[in-house]
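User: I'm putting together a teaching handout on how multi-component assemblies are represented. Below are the sequence lines for each component of a complex, exactly as they appear in our records. Could you produce the 3D structure of the whole assembly as structure tokens, so the students can see both representations side by side? Please keep the chain order the same as the input.
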Amino acid sequence: MTARPVYVRGVGMTQFTFHRTSTVEQLGQDAVRTAVDDSGLAPAAIGEVFCGTVLSPSGTGQRVLRDLGLTGPPVTNVENACSSGASAFRLAVRAVACGAVDTALAFGVEHLSSLGPGTLPLPKDLEATIGLTPPALYALRARAYFEATGADAKHLAMVSVKARRHGALNPYAHLRETVTLDDVLGARMIADPLTRLMCCPASDGAAAAVVSAEPGPGEPITVAASVLCSGIEEDQGRDMAWSETTARAAAEAYATSGLGPADVDLAEIHDAFAINELMYYEALGFCDRGGAASLLESEQTSLGGRIPVNPSGGLLCRGHPAGATGVAQICEAVWQLRGTARHRQVEGARVALTHTTGGGVSGLDHVACAIHLLRKERS
Amino acid sequence: MWRERSDGPVLVGSRCSACGLSTFPERAFCRRCWADSMEPVELSRTGRLYTWTTVHAAQPGYRTPYVLGYVDLPEGVRVLAPLDVAEADLRVGLALTLCLGPVRYEDDGTDVTGYRFQTVAA
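Assistant: Of course. Below is the structure of the complete assembly, with chains in the same order as your input.
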């Protein structure tokens, strides 16, 4: 796809937490300023902007940018469910890759605490009116997954324990305390088998990334793959233990980059609920079908293992300000590839995979799945 | 989306007169043939449980806990519905039959009736 190489020049994000006294604009401005400063480029170099957000008001991107003086370049607001931020990043990459602009900015922002506590509302399609909530949907998929593979709730708890262990090392994470298997299994039930500690927090936050046709100083980080897939409605008997959207997106990302799952040194994946992590190990090719529980138990996806998954703590721990998550994954990937992730550093990381997916449209696996592969080049 | 008949409720879906694709709920357009060829059809009352969950945290308007399940009908249609099944009896492939009952309630507390599935009587 890439017509010319695209480099990630600068990244920045706010902590993900309940920013009750901040506005969505302040959060976005904080992340954008940090990313532009980090890029070493002048704000005037930005030729186009894409803002990912799910539940913020119309014109959020422009509202964030106005008070930074970043007016003039085209701004597009992007809504693509949980992949909104990653979709915005992909559009920025494409704008540079095709030569339309030399430098583009992508950011994602969300202020979910202003919506009040509890599960987020699904759009009012049929299944939501019957009582389907986001955790209920993944509980239904968890049951199907258990039936297909023999995994059980203990494996879901292990995912949460790992996420918290990683996230405790990440100053940007919403939840900073480690938990035990008993804590997770004994937490309040949300939708059986998912307990509260197997569901990500609905956080507030923003993240931003500057991409450019110029590599800048230091070892450059290229976008080796940038893929978006949307769900297919299957005629009957959809296998809900399998994420077809992620599997298609992964196949395309590997094919277009020439990289494979064995080349990936770390992955930031969309663990909105603990079951997702197991399903996505398989769809991303980190293990064979049905092998996710064994891979998790082997600790190869923990920090120190062969392919640490969610060294940031993931959505379960960093939190999930929906539109910001995809760009936050890019921030984490860049810090890991630069070697500046401190206590959660994956040593020697050269290739990072980011993955967001989600959205509830009845009959589809997902609204959209975005996968990016970032690679540190030798300068 | 359903009708009450003398012998009980039925779900109304649609079937493509050209290619045979079945849907629930009813659709006006066949996504497979790309034609206005869908006709309303009454679906089978019984199906098999594909997966389920007991929901404890819900949006306003739902009495928790409640059991939700995906039920596969012989037409190749999968329907999400609340289930009237004891938790201990839930298993993949369980035969279920359509019934009506409250699915949620309005702001004034009035129940809203909808379709549900229950265990097939022995």
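A couple of points students might notice: The mean pLDDT of chain B is 95. Residues 46-119 of chain B form one domain.
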